[in-house]
């Protein structure tokens, strides 16, 4: 079985500060990992994904995430927060061998203070 | 037009009523999913379908049923709605690299 834990249901940063959203996963097979973002009153859209290529993955809007197998982590970072980054972020793990089943973490709401 | 379309976007209903949420997609994908989103719980899988003839229960299927009318259409039904089914519901399809493509969600309130 696979699972995802996102540490911190709410994270608050100042505009221009580093954004760090934490994600730890468990999976019985090499995982595919994803970060999705949900803006208010919208569906989820893909930020970035790890599919066993480079361990540092760059996504949209200046976000990136690093796959660390030894730590079973896939933390999301952005060097400088912008007001428009305020949203809810979801980490997800997929076991493609089991039929593309994505399991989501509980989400982290990012607030950006001016 | 959106790749994954859900209707209705918002619905308020009463306990015991039958509700259907509809989903259609233009991605041409075989695999479709229904998730529900609750605060702090992320998205949880209700049902999924690998093709028109293949329907599978997810982790929280009790109280729900689905119908895959065509490759492009996958509907979710609540036969007798109850208040704890108040949630935001998402339909999604999946691409070859495992990326999910989501609809914009259907917000259901059961009074």
Would you write up a description of this structure?
- The complex is a heterodimer of chains A (114) and B (111).
- Chain A is built from no helices and twelve strands.
- Chain A is globular, with a radius of gyration of 14 Å.
- In chain A, strands 2, 5, 6, 10, 11 and 12 form a six-stranded mixed beta sheet that branches. In chain A, strands 3-9-8-7 form a four-stranded antiparallel beta sheet, with no helix packed on it.
- Chain A is an all-beta fold.
- Chain A has strands spanning 3-5, 10-14, 19-21, 24-26, 32-38, 44-50, 56-58, 64-68, 73-78, 87-95, 101-104, 108-113.
- Chain B is mainly β and 111 residues long.
- In chain B, 0% of the residues lie in helices and 58% in strands.
- Chain B has no helices and eleven strands.
- Chain B has strands spanning 4-7, 10-13, 19-25, 32-38, 42-51, 54-57, 65-70, 73-78, 87-94, 100-102, 106-110.
- In chain B, strands 2, 4, 5, 6, 9, 10 and 11 form a seven-stranded mixed beta sheet that branches.
- The N and C termini of chain B lie far apart (32 Å).
- At the A-B interface, strand 5, strand 6, strand 10 and strand 11 of A face strand 5 of B.
Helical content class of chain A: under 10%
Task: Tell me the quaternary state.
Answer: heterodimer
> Radius of gyration of chain B, rounded?
13 Å
Largest sheet of chain A: 6 strands, mixed
- Low-pLDDT stretches of chain A are none
- Report the portion of residues of chain A in β strands: over 45%
Features:
heterodimer, A: 114 residues, mainly beta, globular, B: 111 residues, seven-stranded mixed beta sheet, four-stranded antiparallel beta sheet, 11 strands, 0% helix, 58% strand
């Amino acid at each position: 079985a696979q699972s995802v834990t996102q540490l911190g249901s709410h994270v608050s940063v100042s505009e221009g500060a580093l954004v760090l959203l934490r994600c730890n996963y468990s999976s019985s097979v090499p995982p595919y990992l994803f970060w999705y973002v949900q803006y208010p009153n919208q569906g989820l859209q893909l930020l970035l994904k790890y599919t066993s290529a480079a361990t540092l993955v760059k996504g949209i809007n200046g976000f990136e995430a690093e796959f660390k197998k030894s730590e079973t982590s896939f933390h999301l970072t952005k060097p400088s927060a912008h007001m428009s980054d305020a949203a809810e972020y979801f980490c997800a793990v997929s076991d493609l061998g089991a039929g593309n089943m994505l399991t989501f973490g509980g989400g982290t709401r990012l607030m950006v203070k001016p | 037009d959106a790749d994954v379309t859900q209707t209705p976007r918002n619905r308020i209903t009463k306990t015991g009523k039958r509700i259907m949420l509809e989903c259609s997609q233009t991605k041409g994908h075989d695999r479709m999913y229904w998730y529900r989103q609750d605060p702090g719980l992320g998205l949880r899988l209700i049902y999924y379908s690998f093709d028109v003839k293949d329907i599978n229960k997810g982790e929280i299927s009790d109280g729900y049923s689905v119908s895959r009318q065509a490759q492009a259409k996958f509907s979710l039904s609540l036969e007798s709605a109850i208040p704890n089914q108040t949630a935001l519901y998402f339909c999604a399809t999946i691409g070859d690299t495992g990326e999910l493509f989501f609809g914009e969600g259907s917000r259901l309130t059961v009074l």
